[in-house]
Design goal:
18 helices; 3-stranded mixed β-sheet; mainly alpha; homotrimer; Ammonium transporter fold
Chain lengths: ~450, ~450, ~450
């Protein structure tokens, strides 16, 4: 107990000071670099001769709002399944995503839209920033319950930079297609988080095991997250694809893929469940794998059948991962993956990248017609064959795995800095470490009050 | 106990095998028949000379997403009111709708958009498939808690086919107008489910009565479903109406109707409640009747006043139905209607059909101008008088009731097949039959942990 | 107890009779005055020579749906934090907003779109009506738990009228700009409610203090409200701004402001919290202040940096308000502000108005180009200088405070009418006064049921 006050004070101040510093620094960088783009600047927009219907805003804002709901409602509530970590799950999601979207506006802006000394922002940068926040939240899922909020902010600080660089290498240098981010978002976010979780391995986590499960109501809250992610995933994959047929086809393919992954998940969950019972963990997570697995290929001519097949495969693989691979991951590989992001984002992300390799390799001018330009511009311009595109896609997957692994390792070392506030092994998955927590039942159940009594008391 | 293992195994395998079979068969049929339509196929779309803003996707996708939220979030959570059946309510909604939307893509495709040997899909087929899934979920509401998931999938298998045929008869053969589905979705879904529930009548259901009510938190979860259904209903009714004034007017009428049904519901609920207290069952359900009752007429020139009057009527009738008619339905007609779909979808659906008869019969060229073509094409083309249209609308209601009743009876016989896994009378409304269920409170309430103690423990 | 039956009956009938009267009167007024506008009337719309893409519906309906979700889901669930008042919070939100949107359609229609004896309605009137409902719900937040539903309806009856007049004075007479309603919605709603709460001051409220806090699950429900408000706020502020760059820029500015207010809130909450712990009340509320504070200025050339700075300031001020000023407000000023609307809507609303004064005063033709016409038409037309616009903006704030204060006082006197049903001091924040309330746990936790046993019972 001796000496703890000052240490306690320094720990107490980590979160507020880090928030203030990061927000201050971000604001200064915004002041210097960030400007409205040609569609959001009053004077520039009105200089042009165009109708309001030409604004990209009207083609992309509804999708943006769906993505926004997925990031904040979807990811936030999906992680509420832990019985005593609901405040942290939804609260830290809120904090992390709010920081990540600002920081990624800067990082992605420097890499993608830096022009005449300024970053220009509009609806596309909003969607891209939310995508990056999504990747950070995937990594958060791997270490949920085992890190403090200051640690998480530092993770986001690093991860957003590496996300931006990896995305730049894939999309701009390698000419890889990845509209819904099977590689750039899901694979990257998952393996970054998993390697980071490996570095933070806690041999004594058993002390908090009793808090690691769900309770009845927390599982229902988590289903809010699941369903919002599920319904809006078609918007996620299509948010940044080519307008017209591209966006339309992407939404359609994702819709089918998710439906099939749901049936695959129910089938496998019942098949491997004790007495044939379904497991909420599978339904909450694996049913979403259909959205991840077509992240690369849904803008391509995947066909409706291809979407169903891909989704079904992802749902089954993901369910089997939860059942059989997660325990191995912890026992053999010392990776404690709280939300099973390896099953929902890792394996389906890699599968999605490989599916993209396949579908890109099968691309023909006949199948895409003049649409080839918008899906595979380098093939359309004759710079590449379909096979070459496929090889580049495959190479993109390896680059992503490399960036994610190295980044996760660096992140783990960063988060292990001894002065950082981290919960004890016996205090993991516990809101009280970070929050003022009210009791479960402040007021005792009362017998029904009669109106007459109330009147009499008057 | 003797002999049960093998039987138990066969029951255990029903759900997974049925899921795998249905998904496999659907995927094969998709491979053979389903193709992108002219707006989702890369080569066909880019062949045309049109701007991206011409794509129907941008006019209908936001409405689709609202409908999608209603089907999965709305229906799913609305049924979570049961205290021990939340996993099943939201989970089986998820399963059923995921299957129904695939299967109805095929059935509706064969009937409505089969061309040169193929079904062509895009945003309209997505909305239609979700509508059909909505009808299946309405029927699910009537038998909620009394059937297993394999039984429900078989119900959906049959119902989707009959839904498609009934819709084809009404819209294509009879020239009936029913944009928001007062007949095709609500009346059909409700009476299909009610007749089915009649066939499955359980005289011993008393054994599970203690689980049939709600608890405080389950009622709040159910309100999530209510509110999402309520806010998005304008999009539901307008999702497939004519673009421009048609869609705009439909959304507006539905908005007013819902507001009035909400006031009607509060008024009647307090009027008939003990000591003037409001009943959550009424608010959760009857307030939505305003959306159902204008399903047919909201695209017509119903007028804002007409919308208010219709909504108010529906809210009051529905509330009175919950209070007085549901008990009679069970005692006299042996229909155990778990969610009261007769009050929310049955009566308001029939009222909505009759309102459509009235408003169609009052249609004049003066009132609709050139808009007559998009609302009543057969009248505009001179093939029918307004009175004739009204008669056809009325006939459509009878056809729907016939299809629903015969279909529900067939469905009931199908679900009674003795080898199908069905919960015992004493195990109805109970998640544990189908799910691994965690406890309510795994960790005891702790007294607040002091940061100093945590530090000391370090 | 003697004599209470008749009195009880008269109290019991207040809500139903008031609902019936208000709905009836509204319907009659709709019948006489409300008509479809040129975009929703079938004959008028088709008379014109325009494409469907010209309909304002497609530019504003997605934003409307987001606003609609904020009003009903956002406000409804945000107030569910009270442990025993969830039914009332979400239910009365539903009732009040359903009435307010009808009534404000009339009031705003008379003031803004009355033409040839009729009010013409369409998507803009829907958005405006929802905005007014939002203001009513803000006032509701100040008196949450201390009034009955009949009182609340009377409050809405008065407040909607004053809201409409105040808005008319600001926008039409003073030429004030306030797209997202920092003044017309937030400042007005907050101070109306706060003054009303002052008039209804209950010195004996201590008797209900034990019910005034949250419990673990009610805080999670409240976060549903918070997050939906947060994600859709960009649509709220931009719903009625000029199409094109105006709407685009407004959404972008609001997005940044909210992100910064979230970081500011986390920083300050941890800074002032015991042992550095975060407080859910701050996160649920103050993080939203970023949306309020740019309600006036987000359509202007606020710059991305300006948005961050404003949001951060609002988040910090709001958090400090919850921590330090709310107790003073009750002790010194006798204002019992249940939800702390002074911190979320009052102070940030006033700050937002002042920010609008500043940004309007800095407006130049150079910065806005031809966009000046759509943001500051009076400056563009040479009728005013930027400084004059700023002075008018400031004057608009005072007018709003005046209308809100006088209106709130009148409202308080109205609600104090002795025959109105109001909960006892000891029955505040208690659902049982108004609702049939089920218990918390009807069925005891059971040990897992084995499938074999179920089979044997058959």
């Amino acid at each position: 107990m001796a000496g703890s006050p000052s240490r306690s004070a320094s720990r107490r101040l980590q979160l507020p000071l880090l928030c203030l510093f990061l927000q201050g620094a971000t604001a200064v960088l915004f002041a210097v670099f960030v400007r409205y783009n040609h569609e959001t600047d009053a004077s520039v927009w009105h200089r042009g001769n165009h109708s309001n219907a030409d604004s990209e805003f009207y083609f992309r804002y509804p999708s943006f709002q769906d993505v926004h709901a997925m990031v904040f409602v979807g990811f936030g509530f999906l992680m509420v399944f832990l019985q005593r970590y609901g405040f942290s799950s939804v609260g830290f999601t809120f904090l992390l995503a709010s920081f990540a979207l600002q920081w990624s506006t800067l990082v992605q802006g420097f890499l993608h839209s830096f022009d005449s000394g300024h970053i220009h922002v509009g609806i596309e940068s909003m969607i891209n920033a939310d995508f990056c926040a999504g990747a950070v939240l995937i990594s958060f899922g791997a270490i949920l319950g085992k890190t403090g909020p200051a640690q998480l902010l530092l993770m986001a600080l690093l991860e957003v930079v590496l996300f931006g660089i990896n995305e730049f290498v894939l999309l701009n240098l390698l000419g890889v297609r990845d509209a819904g981010g099977s590689m750039t978002i899901h694979t990257f976010g998952a393996y970054f988080g998993l390697v980071l979780s490996r570095v933070l391995y806690r041999p004594q986590l058993e002390k908090s095991r009793h808090r690691q499960g769900s309770i009845y109501h927390s599982d229902l809250f988590a289903m809010i997250g699941t369903i919002f992610l599920w319904i809006f995933w078609p918007s996620f994959n299509s948010a940044l694809t080519a307008l017209g047929a591209g966006q339309h086809r992407t939404a359609l393919n994702t819709y089918y893929s998710l439906a099939a992954s749901t049936l695959g998940t129910f089938a496998l969950s019942a098949l491997v469940g004790e007495d044939g019972r379904l497991d909420m963990v599978h339904i909450q997570n694996a049913a979403l794998a259909g959205g991840v697995v077509v992240g690369t290929s849904s803008e391509m001519m995947l066909t409706p059948f291809g979407s169903l097949a891909a989704g079904f495969l992802a749902g089954t693989v993901s369910t089997l991962g939860y059942k059989f691979f997660t325990p191995i991951l912890e026992l053999k590989f010392k990776v404690q993956d709280t939300c099973g992001v390896h099953n929902l984002h890792g394996m389906p992300g890699v599968l999605g990248a490989l599916l993209g390799v396949l579908v890109a390799g099968l691309a023909t001018r006949e199948a895409y017609g003049d649409g080839l330009e918008s899906v595979f511009p380098l093939i359309a311009e004759g710079q590449r064959s379909a096979t070459s595109q496929a090889v580049h896609q495959l190479f993109g997957l390896f680059v992503t795995l490399l960036f994610a692994s190295v980044g996760g390792a660096l992140g783990g070392l960063l988060l292990k800095l001894p002065f950082l506030d981290s919960p004890e092994d016996s205090q993991c998955y516990e809101d009280q470490v970070h929050w003022e927590v009210p009791g479960e039942h402040e007021v005792k159940a009362q017998r029904p009050l009669r109106m007459e009594e109330a009147d009499t008391q008057a």
